[in-house]
């Protein structure tokens, strides 16, 4: 298989892992709208759903398969024939179908979820991949709870499923347990110890229980993974999944990594708003890249530095992620430079003495009001100028 070694594939699971969030369920037409926006964003794979889980989810996979042509359409299954048959049927219209099948890989899951043994689980994993491969060429295998699995057993499982036909091997940190070094070394271990690893792409799928999903995904990529599973706004089970906008902007910002994706980051704000409103899931204001405050400068020291040269306090251009421009917020923490900037923007070039007078009044009002808007600035300027 020939792959550009510097290309990182983006597997979006907003409509599967993301949609598992209580209260975020979507109707099929809404899913189709999001899928089209994901296609325009440039994702490589859309995980459209888990067809066996409900008739509605089955139908969504059918409709998404018809509506989208560029990205691979992927359907989730457990490692059993019934799930795989449902996925095959739901993917009937997909131009580029993928089945995502898998089973637990940690001793915790093997013992307490499956009441089974490593040998039995390995056999079931291989059987599921072989069964799915009869219907669909592109098979992704997930080793659930790989974050807590024994590396030697995980390597054995990965080698066996690749030999059975898996084209992508997903190494999920299902419980968001790993630290970046631990997760990265797991991917490195697989790269170094699985004989046929070059016949498949390693995928990272990290949950955010300790706030490390993005850092862990990045560590996996640096150690050789070339597909990352993520969601818009980082939504997903419990504390969520890796945020698509974060991991892709890291790759875009750090040229030293020499890795690239097909994502057009200018769509980020628009698709973030779309997912947030359709799923009734507000984005926290300080969320990286897409939060309301992600490009708002509010302290006097930062505002002054920003106004002297924006790169003093800006590592990403807001226009690169679909946000109009940076925001110089006026509060009691702002300095004269920020106030002068807004006065000039509103048509007032004041000399130093008048600026000082407006600034004195500004601080009193800002202490009372919190945030100062354009009307307040104009009112204060007019008050000072009228008194002369
Ligand atoms: O977190 C996980 O392990 C998953 C798998 C089903 C891929 O979502
Ligand atoms: Zn998951």
TrEMBL record:
GO function term, MF aspect, one: 2-isopropylmalate synthase activity
EC primary class: transferase
A Gene Ontology biological process term: L-leucine biosynthetic process
PROSITE patterns: AIPM_HOMOCIT_SYNTH_1, AIPM_HOMOCIT_SYNTH_2, PYR_CT
EC number(s) reported in the record: 2.3.3.13
Pyruvate carboxyltransferase domain sequence ranges: 8-269
Biological or metabolic pathway of the protein: Amino-acid biosynthesis; L-leucine biosynthesis; L-leucine from 3-methyl-2-oxobutanoate: step 1/4
Alphabetical UniProt keywords: Acyltransferase, Amino-acid biosynthesis, Branched-chain amino acid biosynthesis, Leucine biosynthesis, Manganese, Transferase
Keyword Manganese carried by entry: yes
Listed InterPro entries: 2-IPM_HCS-like, AIPM/Hcit_synth_CS, Aldolase_TIM, LeuA/HCS_post-cat, PYR_CT
Amino-acid biosynthesis keyword on record: yes
Family stated for the protein in its record: Belongs to the alpha-IPM synthase/homocitrate synthase family. LeuA type 1 subfamily.
Protein name: 2-isopropylmalate synthase
Protein's organism: Pedobacter frigoris
Lineage, opening ranks: Bacteria, Pseudomonadati, Bacteroidota, Sphingobacteriia, Sphingobacteriales
């Amino acid at each position: 298989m020939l792959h550009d070694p510097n290309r990182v594939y983006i597997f979006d699971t907003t409509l599967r892992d993301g949609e598992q969030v209580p209260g975020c369920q979507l109707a099929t037409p809404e899913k189709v709208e999001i899928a089209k926006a994901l296609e325009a964003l440039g994702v490589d794979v859309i995980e459209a759903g888990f067809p066996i889980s409900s008739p509605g989810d089955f139908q969504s996979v059918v409709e998404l398969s018809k509506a989208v042509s560029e990205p691979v359409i992927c359907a989730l299954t457990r490692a059993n024939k019934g799930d795989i048959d449902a996925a095959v049927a739901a993917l009937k219209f997909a131009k580029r179908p993928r089945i995502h099948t898998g089973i637990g890989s940690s001793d915790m899951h093997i013992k307490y979820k499956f009441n089974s043994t490593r040998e039995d689980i390995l056999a079931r994993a291989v059987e599921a991949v072989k069964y799915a491969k009869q219907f669909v060429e592109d098979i992704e295998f997930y080793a659930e709870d790989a974050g807590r699995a024994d590396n030697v057993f995980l390597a054995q499982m990965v080698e066996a499923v690749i030999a059975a036909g898996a084209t992508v091997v997903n190494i999920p940190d299902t419980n968001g347990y790993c630290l970046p070094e631990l997760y990265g070394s797991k991917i490195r271990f697989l790269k170094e110890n699985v004989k046929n690893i070059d016949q498949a792409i390693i995928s990272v799928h990290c949950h955010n229980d300790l706030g490390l999903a993005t850092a862990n995904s990045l560590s996996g990529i640096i150690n050789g993974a070339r597909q990352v599973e993520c969601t818009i706004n980082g939504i997903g089970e419990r504390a969520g999944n890796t945020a698509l906008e974060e991991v892709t902007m890291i790759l875009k910002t750090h040229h030293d990594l020499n890795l690239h994706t097909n994502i057009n980051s200018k769509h980020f704000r628009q698709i973030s708003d779309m997912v947030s409103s359709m799923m009734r899931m507000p984005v926290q204001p300080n969320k990286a890249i897409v939060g309301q405050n992600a490009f708002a400068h509010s302290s006097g020291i930062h505002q002054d530095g920003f106004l002297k040269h924006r790169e003093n306090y800006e590592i990403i251009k807001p226009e690169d992620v679909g946000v109009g421009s940076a925001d110089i917020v006026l509060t009691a923490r702002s300095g004269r430079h920020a106030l002068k900037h807004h006065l000039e923007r509103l048509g007032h070039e004041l000399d130093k003495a008048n600026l000082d007078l407006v600034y004195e009044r500004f601080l009193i009002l800002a202490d009372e009001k919190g945030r100062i808007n354009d009307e307040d600035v104009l009112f204060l300027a007019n008050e000072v100028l009228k008194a002369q």
